[in-house]
Specification:
about 90 residues, alpha+beta, three-stranded mixed β-sheet, Aminopeptidase
Length: about 90
């Protein structure tokens, strides 16, 4: 769970999604994401978020099928980028 300061509502962030190789291509990601989406809607969340590595084409394709896309707060400024500073 997280909080969108822009929407002033809670959100759900997916972390470390993986399906065991033997069970891939059986619709498990779709079932998981649909269930979490329904729970998030029931809780009044404004969105689902996740991070994916730029080169992870398999995961990106799966997430795009579920309706995920990069986001822009202001189209003139481009897509948002996740940064970090390790301590």
């Amino acid at each position: 769970m997280g909080f969108s300061t822009f929407a002033a509502k809670p959100l759900v962030n997916f972390h470390d999604v993986s399906v065991v190789k033997a069970f891939r291509r059986q619709g498990i990601t779709h079932l998981l994401f649909n269930k979490v989406e329904q729970i998030a809607k029931d809780m009044g969340c404004c969105k689902l978020t996740l991070e994916v590595l730029q080169g992870n084409e398999v995961a990106k394709a799966a997430y795009e099928k579920e309706g995920f896309a990069g986001y822009e707060l202001d189209p003139k400024m481009g897509q948002a980028v996740f940064w970090q500073k390790k301590l």
